[in-house]
Design brief:
about 55% helix, about 150 residues, mainly alpha
């Protein structure tokens, strides 16, 4: 459901972040270069005043620069913050990390991540339900060494 419009959302976020139009334009510049799109002071002024609506690519640039979703910026009643997206390399790294549990401690140390971080593990509570609990890395390791170790943990 649409609750607002791009003009109002731009004004709102610019006020919240204490941005002037020129500041917004400067935040957009890296994305303009990335997508090879020209965006000027006049364009920003027209969007903020409501005299014009940004094209799809310019809406995308504004959303990225402001770290909001395009849909929210258009005025719809949706999540404001974008969902986190992984690049192909990041997905590959996550898969490799998960497939090499023996290396996780070394990677965590290298990245400065505490080895006592909590993991969510599902275990059956009843025939048709599961409950999630938090276990420390040490508890997970203890479970792995248990006689009836379940590979899904």
């Amino acid at each position: 459901m649409k609750k607002s419009n791009t003009q109002e959302r731009l004004k709102l976020i610019m006020e919240e972040k204490n941005l002037r139009q020129v500041d917004l334009l400067n935040k957009c510049m890296p994305y303009c270069k990335k997508y090879n799109v020209r965006l000027g002071r006049n364009d920003i002024s027209q969007y903020v005043s409501g005299k014009a609506e940004p094209t799809q690519i310019r809406l995308s640039i504004l959303a990225e620069a402001l770290n909001v979703t395009e849909t929210w910026l258009m005025g719809y009643d949706v999540e404001r913050e974008p969902t986190f997206k992984f690049s192909a390399l990041e997905k590959e790294l996550i898969t490799a990390y998960r497939n090499k549990p023996e290396m996780q401690s070394a990677v965590n140390t290298l990245l400065g991540i505490s080895n006592n971080s909590q993991r969510t593990v599902e275990y059956p509570m009843a025939a048709r339900t599961t409950k999630k609990i938090k276990l420390s890395a040490q508890e997970v390791e203890s479970l792995k060494k248990a006689k009836e170790y379940n590979e899904d943990i």
